[in-house]
Amino acid sequence: MSVADALWRFPSAMMAWRNLGRNRMRTALAALGIVIGVVAISSLGMAGVALQQQATSNLGSLTNQVSVSAGQDSDYDGVTEEQVEEIRSIITDAEVVPQKSNSTTVSSRGKEAYVSVTGVTNAAALYDVSSGEAPERLQTGALISNSTAQELGLELGDPVEYDGHLYRITGLIDSSSGFGPGGGRGELVIPISGLADQKYYDSVTIIAADGDAASVIANTLDEHFNTDGRDEEEVLRVSSYASVQENIGSFLNTLQLALLGIGGISLVVASVAILNVMLMSTVERRGEIGVLRAVGIRRGEVLRMILTEATFLGTLGGLVGAGCSLVVGAVMFNVVAGDPAGVLQWASARYLLYGFAFAVFASVLSGIYPAWKAANDSPVEALRG
Amino acid sequence: MSVIELDDVVKRYESGAQTVTALKGVDFHADRGEMVTIIGPSGSGKSTMLNMIGLLDTPTEGTVHLDGRNVTEFTEDELTEERRTTLGFVFQDFHLLPMLSAVENVELPSVWDTSVDRHDRAIDLLKRVGLGDRLDHTPDELSGGQQQRVAIARSLINGPDVLLMDEPTGNLDQDTGRTILEEVTRLKDEENIAVVAVTHDDQMLDYTDRTVRIVDGVIQS
Questions:
Q1: Is the pLDDT confidence value at B19 over 50?
Q2: Does the structure show a pLDDT above 80 at B162?
Q3: How do B194-198 and B35-39 pair as beta strands?
Q4: CA angle at residue A280 from A279 to A286, to 5 degrees?
Q5: Which of A31, A193, A215, B206 makes the best surface tag, with the fewest CB within 10 Å?
Q6: CA torsion A371→A374→A376→A382, rounded to 10°?
Q7: SS3 B106
Q8: Which chain B residue is nearest to residue A300, measuring alpha carbons?
Q9: What is the DSSP annotation of A308-344?
């Protein structure tokens, strides 16, 4: 049994396929409408995902951080050792990094730069270095901002002086990473022992797994330290950037919905085109459908045949459209995120599926009326053509 | 017993404010193995009559019996079922589907019926009308006479009791028309079916067993 014989077992599909083949140009144009609709909907959806990922990765180093400093109702001028221990006992699943800070002027080869000084032990958790290394236990060396190092002509291994002590530079901080505390100013990072004359910590940074975890931690700490019976007081100021990410996220979601809406309009236009094509082709074939009805083809069978035609149009357009969208998406991810393979992850690839499904759905929907009309035409009237 | 029978059939059409009576109490019957030709001038009601016999239209008054069953009150779906199983149609302009081969066109009426495989019968019928070497040709590769033979094979695929022909030779030249009529006569005897034809073609009268003349919706003889 040949393929054609096998297909003949599904007469609606076979007839629909042959009917579409009769006027290839018209079929191609109708499918093209669908292709454009699918490309619009899928690539706009994927553009939203690419933007969102880009925004998240830009904010990424900050949004998972919670920053704790002394609040206005605190008895101390900073965060005490006891409070740090308390935080550590509450927050067990995130890195707790206490810091002391000051500022100073660093000079080298006759040039000077005003920098903020941070005393910290776990430098690796807070800083990304472009060269050298940021140790987890910073005990002797120092890290300095890349930009400051260039300004002063400092290199790895050069000494820097603070408060009478010399520290050897072991790493250069990547200045472009994030826009954290001390943003514009250069930064010098030294072991916490270098700031031993300051009794309290100026701030504690807690690094959580992600933005959501950071929010939870911020809330937990706020409740623990700042609620005393019924009174609200601020012993510790707890802040996280998670809310910033939430705001940006919700803005991007709105943007994405708007983009999808625009894409959806083009698919609606495409399905009107299909409605028109199907209606035209059933009107043209009125006599033929009359013959089918006269020789005993049931109304449901005529209906199925024409609906199948519409479904094929949608499937064809949807598949080609999804293929084109994949290429468009890869280009877009390459431009926005620098990684064309990003398009394959489910978050963006699902828009290919949505576009395809929407195309088939819209096509079937636009096939219903022409199919119903053709199936319920009186055979006598239809035979007259 | 007659395989198809019209009893005092009246058909009225509402046309705007006017009512047109196309058939005014028509009695008709056809038996197995018989060819009946309906003749009459344009607008005499012969097409309407053929539509009644072919269960494509229902009478306003009177009854239609098919194989002794009263089918007058049948629903559209029931009528479709009767056409599918009991009737065959041949039209003036063949009405083959252009995208299907000869054998596919012949199979078409039965193809949605997955319970039967009429492929072999389709080939057999095409051979019997002399198109055994044209099975996979599409209609545009066939002459008018050949197309009408495909249409005749199609009308017989379901093993009908009644074959209805609407001007079957109307689009064919004299010689081809004659060959077609010879084919039909032979198949009518082989399959033992009733053939009812509407025609303007005088040479058809040479093959017919009985002629019914209709004028203004009334049977004359």
A1: yes
A2: yes
A3: parallel
A4: 85
A5: B206
A6: -170
A7: helix
A8: B77
A9: HHHHHHHHHHHHHHHHHHHHHHHHHHHHHTS-GGGGG
Cβ atoms of A321 and A354 within 8 Å: the answer is no
B186 in Cβ contact with B149 (< 8 Å): no
Q: What 3-state DSSP class applies to A230? A: coil
Residues 6+ apart with CB under 8 A from B137: B101, B102
Q: Scan for tokens 């180093």, then name that residue.
A: A61
Range of the domain at B139: 4-219
Best CA proximity match to A84, nearest among A170, A218, A203: A203
DSSP-derived secondary structure letter, A201? B
Tell me how many domains chain B contains: 1
Name the 3-class secondary structure at A123: helix
3-state DSSP call for residue A384?
coil
Q: How far is the CA of A312 from the CAs of A276, B18, B49, B73, in angstroms?
A: 16, 45, 40, 38
Q: Does B161 lie at the interface with A, CB-CB under 8 angstroms?
A: no
Mean pLDDT by 10-residue block, N- to C-terminus, for chain A (385 residues)? 67 88 88 89 86 76 81 86 89 88 83 87 84 84 87 86 87 64 70 88 87 83 78 82 77 86 84 85 89 92 93 93 93 85 87 91 92 91 81
**SS3 of A126, please?**
helix
Task: Identify which of B87, B95, B111 has the shortest CB distance to residue A287.
Answer: B95
DSSP state of B143: -
Long-range CB contact pairs, B10-15, < 8 A, 24+: B10/B59, B10/B60, B10/B61, B10/B62, B11/B45, B11/B48, B11/B52, B11/B57, B11/B59, B11/B60, B11/B217, B12/B60
Supply the CATH number for residue B118's domain: 3.40.50.300
- Torsion of Cα atoms, A290 then A295 then A297 then A298, to 10°: 80
CA distance A95 to A91: 8
Q: Provide the residue type at B107 as one letter.
A: E
DSSP bridge pairs for A165: A162
Average per-residue pLDDT for chain A: 85
Smallest CA–CA separation between A291 and chain B, in Å? Answer: 7
Cα angle B151, B155, B158 (rounded to 5 degrees) comes to 140
What was the ipTM of the complex prediction? 0.91
* CA-based R_g, chain B, Å: 17
Query: CB B109 to CB A21 under 8 A?
Result: no
Q: Is B81 on the interface with A (CB under 8 A)?
A: yes
Residues 6+ positions from A372 with CB-CB distance below 8 Å: A303
Q: How many Å apart are CA A364 and CA A294, to the nearest integer?
A: 26
Rounded CA-CA distance B164/B155 in Å is 9
Choose from B55, B111, B118, B135 for mutation: most chain A CBs within 10 A: B111
Q: A106 and A150 in contact (C-beta within 8 Å)?
A: no
Q: What is the pLDDT of residue A175?
A: 64
Rounded Cα distance between A324 and A318, Å, is 10
Question: How much of chain A, in percent, has pLDDT values that exceed 90?
Answer: 18
- Residue corresponding to tokens 């033929």: A288
User: How far are the Cα atoms of A57, B57, B141 from residue A184, in angstroms, in the given order?
Assistant: 20, 89, 83
